[in-house]
Each structure stands twice: as structure tokens, then as C-alpha cells.
Specification:
By secondary structure, this protein is an alpha/beta fold. The protein contains 11 helices and 13 strands. It has 2 domains: 77 residues, 2-Layer Sandwich (GMP Synthetase, Chain A, domain 3); 259 residues, 3-Layer(aba) Sandwich (Rossmann fold). An 8-stranded mixed beta sheet has the order 8-9-5-10-4-11-12-13. Helix 1 crosses helix 2, helix 3 crosses helix 11 and helix 8 runs parallel beside helix 9. It binds adenosine-5'-diphosphate and magnesium ion.
């Protein structure tokens, strides 16, 4: 029987490399708690990602290292505690509890940006992460409908002497949208400055608390709202949504160029191909590339950004949007898996970005 002591335990855990920090668990300080009770080991390890495959990888590596060190006659009670990475600098007073802000953008309207944002938000929440969604499409809000909360009105509560809007919550996602403020939304004619003010209020006058990921569903194109966003909050990265048609692809380039302007400087995490292929519900194995194949992939390659996922064109995605029940909630639906994979890729890219690139700052751009 190989003795379990503090020293032998530390030596064993030193052989396990954290897949995100790329350092062993001891050096990178990932062991939060341990307790040796004869042949029972209680262990709490911190993981930097809520992605299922990362958690599995850490768990398997820990179990293998301990089996190697102590044989198989011991009991391991392993707790993995997720601590999502963040990389912010300065402006700590803006949304202080929000670790990562992800803009969901597109060149064209109608490509499924809101559909992707809604399903991505729910998929991230399903990993156990704390998720928020801001509907920045002031002119065409769709978040309330997509989350079946059209008739809800956010509460206002006094917190630290300030009246703050409390986001509405459904499916584990906290959200705000101009659509919740019916009287305001009915004022169809928004002038630019008013729209910008409304967006800012959703950040400044709301109580978001702690979030791992805050998604922003942007209006189509590259306009005032985009500028207001990058000037108001430190955006971690942008996810661009496109369909495979040539007309949509041309606009992807414009979107990417905007985020890459030196004055804006928001990393593009990657692009999502929506409506990548059509799959009939009764023949889920069949894929019809009705808008052409690999268009978005080739565009992504030429812009040197990753393709984060391919979402099929299926009726249930549209129905999920219209009935306020994002399709990702329906585990049996193949489209659900596509959104879950997308979420894993987004988590991965946010981690890479946080560990490799400059901290996120509020953009100093004043005009284009
Ligand atoms: N992959 C998809 N399969 C089927 N319908 C989709 C898909 N993506 C989006 N839709 C539908 O297309 C319409 C436009 O999508 P939406 O997300 O509102 O686009 P955007 O926000 O880019 O304007 C909606 O009716 C939506 O349900
Ligand atoms: Mg939309």
C-alpha cells in the first residue's frame, strides 16, 4: 500500500498539467482544498473553464495521477470549482462583477444573430456559467420574444442609494432589452443619441451582479450602437454571425474590419456559420448545402479568424425563436448539439484571448 501523505499528494498533483493555464496544478495554485483522512482523499481543484471537455480532462488527469501514485485502494472525493478567466484593466467601476463581455455582431440583418445570441447564452448557462444577455438592437429588439418574457417588466430596486433596474431572468440567463419598456419601445423613431443613451442605461443603471459571460446582441451592420458599446464597456471579443451567401460574406469583412480598427481594437473571437446547411427533421443525416458549401470557412480562413461553429437551417430553430423556447433547451434536437459545441468553442477562444492578448479596455475612439 502506497502511503498518502501531504508530500506524496503534492508530488502526484505536480504531474497534472492544467489544460488552460498550461502549468501543473500545484505551481498554478489550482488546489483550493485537500484533506487526507486515512485512505480517503477530499480534494477541491479550480478549473478555469466551464466547458465540459475541459472539466472531464482535468478530472481524468487527476484520477490517473492519483491512481499511479496510490494504487486503487483509496477513495477520492473530487470537487471541481469553475473560476472563469477574465482579463480586464482599468475602468473597474464599469460592470465590476462581469468577467467577459462578448459582442454578437453581423454585417447583415436577418442572418440569425439574435437566434445565435439567445441559444449561445442558454448553452453557456447550461455549463453552469453565470450568463447575461443585453439586447442592443434598440430598433428591433427580439430578446423578450425569444425568451418568452415579453410581458415581464424589470423591477427597480434601490441598491447603494441608487435606483437600479433588475434584469429579467429565464432559462438561467439574465437579460435586458428595450422591448421590456413598452412605452419607450413604441416610440419607433429613435434618434441616434437617444438609442445610445438607452443602451448605456442598460449597463450603468442596471444591477447585473456577477457574470462570467455577458453577451451583447448588436443591431446589424456597423453603426452608432457599435461605437457606443465599445466606448461604454470593455468588450472582451466579438463573435460574427454570417450565412453562406455571397451577399452576407461581403459584409462579414466590413464587420471584422470595424472591430480591427486600431481605435476600436476588439479581438474577433471567430465567425459562426448560420443556416450552413438544411436538414429535414425526418432525415437528420442528410445535409443540403443550399447556400453553397464552405463559404464562411473560406472567408474565415482568409481573414485569419476561426470558424466557431456551423448551425443548420432547421424549422425547429425558427419555431424555438417564435415560441420563446431556444432550441438548445431540447436535448433531443440535433440543432441543440450544434449550439452546445458553439458554446464550447466560444469558451475556449475567450480563454485563449484572456491568456494571450492585451487586457480589455474601453475604447477611446471618438469618431470614425
Ligand atoms: N438556423 C436557423 N434555422 C432556421 N431558422 C432560423 C435560423 N437562424 C435564424 N432563423 C430564423 O430567421 C429569422 C431571423 O433570425 P434572427 O435571429 O432574428 O436574425 P437577426 O438577429 O440577424 O436579424 C428568425 O425568424 C429566426 O427564427
Ligand atoms: Mg436580431
Amino acid at each position: 500500500m502506497k502511503p498518502i501523505t501531504q508530500d506524496t499528494l503534492i508530488a502526484a498533483l505536480k504531474t497534472v498539467i492544467d489544460p488552460i493555464a498550461k502549468e501543473d496544478l500545484i505551481t498554478s495554485g489550482k488546489v483550493r482544498f485537500f484533506e487526507i483522512l486515512d485512505r480517503t482523499l477530499n480534494l477541491e481543484i479550480e478549473v478555469l473553464s466551464p466547458a465540459l471537455h475541459v472539466k472531464k480532462k482535468v478530472e481524468n488527469a487527476v484520477r490517473a495521477a492519483l491512481a499511479e501514485a496510490f494504487g486503487d485502494d483509496f477513495t477520492l472525493n473530487l470537487t471541481l470549482t469553475v473560476n472563469v478567466t477574465t482579463r480586464r484593466s482599468g475602468q473597474q467601476d464599469i460592470l465590476p462583477g462581469v468577467k467577459n463581455i462578448i459582442a454578437v455582431a453581423s454585417g447583415k440583418g436577418g442572418v440569425g444573430k439574435s437566434t445565435v445570441a439567445a441559444n449561445l447564452a442558454v448553452a453557456l448557462a447550461q455549463t453552469g456559467a453565470k450568463v447575461g444577455l443585453v439586447d442592443a438592437d434598440i430598433y428591433g429588439p427580439s430578446v423578450p420574444l425569444m425568451f418568452d418574457v415579453e410581458n415581464r417588466r424589470p423591477d427597480v430596486r434601490k441598491i447603494d442609494d441608487k435606483n437600479l433596474i433588475i434584469p429579467v431572468e429565464n432559462y438561467g440567463v439574465k437579460m435586458l432589452s428595450i422591448g421590456f419598456f413598452a412605452d419607450v419601445a413604441q416610440a419607433v423613431v429613435w434618434r441616434g443619441p437617444m438609442a445610445s443613451k438607452a443602451l448605456k442605461q442598460m449597463f450603468i443603471d442596471a444591477y447585473w451582479g456577477e457574470l462570467d459571460y455577458m453577451l451583447i446582441d448588436l443591431p446589424p451592420g456597423t453603426g452608432d450602437i457599435h461605437l457606443t458599446l465599445v466606448q461604454s464597456v470593455p468588450v472582451t471579443g466579438a463573435v460574427i454571425v454570417s450565412t453562406p451567401q455571397k451577399v452576407a460574406l461581403a459584409d462579414v469583412q466590413k464587420g471584422v474590419s470595424m472591430f480591427r480598427l486600431p481605435a476600436v481594437n476588439v479581438p474577433v473571437l471567430g465567425v459562426v456559420e448560420n443556416m450552413a446547411y438544411f436538414t429535414p427533421a425526418e432525415l437528420p443525416e442528410n445535409k443540403y448545402y443550399i447556400f453553397g458549401k464552405d463559404g464562411v470557412k473560406n472567408m474565415a480562413d482568409s481573414l485569419e479568424i476561426p470558424l466557431l461553429g456551423e448551425i443548420p437551417l432547421v424549422q425547429s430553430i425558427r419555431e424555438g425563436g417564435d415560441t420563446g423556447k431556444p432550441v438548445v433547451l431540447d436535448e433531443a434536437n440535433p440543432a441543440s448539439a450544434a449550439f452546445k459545441e458553439l458554446a464550447e468553442q466560444v469558451i475556449l477562444r475567450v480563454n485563449e484571448r484572456n491568456l494571450e492578448q492585451q487586457p480589455t479596455k474601453v475604447s477611446e475612439v471618438t469618431r470614425f
